[in-house]
Amino acid sequence: MAHRGGALHPDLVGLENTLHAFRHAAALGYRYLETDVHVTRDHRLVAFHDAVLDRMTSHSGPLATMLAEELAQARIGGAHAVPSMADLLEELPECRFNIDLKAPGAAEALADLVDRTGAHDRVCVGSFSSRDLQEFRRLTGGRVATSAAPREVAYFLTASWPRVTRLVRRRPFAALQIPRKRGRLPLVTRSVVRRAHAAGVHVHVWTVDDPVEMVELLELGVDGLITDRTDVLKDVLTERGLWRDQP
Q1: Is the dihedral of CA 142, 130, 52, 100 positive or negative?
Q2: pTM > 0.90
Q3: Strand partners, 241
Q4: Which CATH topology does 147-247 take?
């Protein structure tokens, strides 16, 4: 998955989460793109990581306090607008999106957008906020894939097998999306991957930019790598005969 479109690709530094970045990833052959979403004051859902505009744009201040018309004047890298999530779905119909809910109101706005565009099978949704993720699941009635919330991840990794299977049945999620380690504690091991697969759950690892680590994780059997270095990951997958250019 192209993290924020491939935020550290040499051609894209400073242009993360722009339509240009996502088109760049798609041109490389990526069909799975990762982004974050926030909501403007007038409820427009936009692809942006930070709660404030200062780091990435020509404007400053909290994104949530701005109207969509005001946000439209901001520029990333001096030239690129902050894209709406609706624009990304329309402009890249061949791609699927992994979407991280970053702000209050994003769950409702995304659920509405998915319903309006019929994009139920084009997105997987996650969040560090269990409340926001549960709200999205409630609004979409289980019709959209989600990743496990942080508390669900912890439970999955530590609970006995009967309890894990009950968790997956009761609160269905399609994937564990986790870092390789939390501090010194390894989270992604061969046994964790096998346990997830036995439960019908994918394992996606973020954010992996080192080619050696990519190979190690692939050999553990993970299902997805989320990377800022779309160039490096494509090279690794190509060398291993795993890259598939799709129409």
Answers
A1: negative
A2: yes
A3: none
A4: TIM Barrel (3.20.20)
